[in-house]
Amino acid sequence: MRFSFTSYTRTGLPDTTPETTNPAWSSPGALSDLHDTLGAIADLETQYEIERDEIEQSSGTEDTKKRDMAALEDAHQHRCEPHVQQWAKLQGRTE
């Protein structure tokens, strides 16, 4: 069966409430804030992956690697938390 937009006919009048005609993410700066926050999270994730790979490939003992991985995980959570909270706040603002 081929897809066709004709099977989706509009009924009634369009919704012109402020929320549908001007969503929060279209406000000045909101899209930029979303972009900046997501970019910061992505940068932190990339740095975490690099540091994790360095630990895994290091010549240390397994105990040392486990300790270093635990410390890295704690530091990663600490660095990401403010950005993740900001992301959640921005998502709430756009819904």
Q: Over all CA atoms, what is the radius of gyration?
A: 22 Å
Order of helices and strands: HHH
The separation of the N and C termini measures 35 Å
Number of strands: 0
Task: Provide a quick synopsis of the model.
The protein is an all-alpha fold. It contains 3 helices and no strands.
Can you describe this structure?
It contains three helices and no strands. The protein is an all-alpha fold. The model has no long low-confidence stretch (mean pLDDT 80).
Question: What key phrases describe this protein's structure?
Answer:
95 residues, mainly alpha, 3 helices, 0% strand
SSE layout and pairings?
Elements: H1 18-21, H2 30-57, H3 62-94
